[in-house]
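Chapter summary example.
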Amino acid sequence: MRPVDTSYKSNIINRHIEKTEYMAAAGTLNFKHLRYFWAVARSGSIARASGQLHVTPQSISGQLAELEGSLGVELFRRAGRGLELTEGGRRILGYADEIFGLELELIGAARGAGTRAAAPYRVGIADSVPKSLAWRVVEPALRLEIPVRLVCREGRLAALLADLAVHRLDIVIADRPMPSDLNVRAYDHRLGASDLTIFGAAALVSGLAGDFPAMLDGAPFLMPGEGVAIRRGLEQWFDAARIRPRIVGEFDDSALMKAFGQGGAGCFAAPSAMADYVCRHYGVQAVGRVEQVMEELYAITTERRLQHPATLAVSRAASRDLFGTGTPGGSAPPGRRRSASRT
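The structure predicted for these 343 residues follows.
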């Protein structure tokens, strides 16, 4: 078996030291109180947590109050008949997840477990990234020699970057670089780019007159939503080609858009790098290629030079297998910093 590169672990250790120092800044951190907070946050209520921990709700409430007092942070707020995490509570929960995750791994190692516990690899996927593309990019992380437990979160890019900034995510996959107006210390790593192909159900395509792209003039078309990076490029391409498709739907979710396309509601665009998969999976056919519009894909991390083995696997597989732009030796170039904060 090849030796596993563990140089990235020093960064993880330093990060945990920084987190512990932060949480203990207001006084000595009581890990029993932190565990009660963790149980309440994960179960969703004090009543459910009390059943799991076999202690009274009053005891949990009292110790949560002590934890809030020692940290100087309000952790929960009332939401109807239940509780919801405050912004500070969400930040502390991210720390607690890692602390108690490491605790479980430590216990397994101490007991001589035959296999190493899978470390969580937390991936944020912007909702504008095609799901089939995201799967192809992230899946190589599961084929590492070291075990990885994949934790995927989907959402708006700004929200995902906020989680990345407080280390609740290890990487964000996006269809654009990080916006320069966000005050987040992070780096863009361009994974690759693909031009677009227009697809349509066979019954729909057979009824279109003329050659590509003129055949799209007046044809029903499914457009990506306003928040999708390729939207503007497609609009410019239609204008340049003097084509006016009939927009019958707009979709933030690319998988939903493809499902409508599969049903014959309209033609749609997807990355040419995924053309074979789209045709096979959705039962549609390629109509023509749009070389002037590119779908880009970025990995956004807090690392300038990628070190985490799973992130390296993602980067190398995307460059080599998906976009065919791998660099010699599979090394990832340093990322470009995009942060409003220049300190």
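To summarize the output: The CA atoms of residues 31 and 67 lie 9 Å apart.
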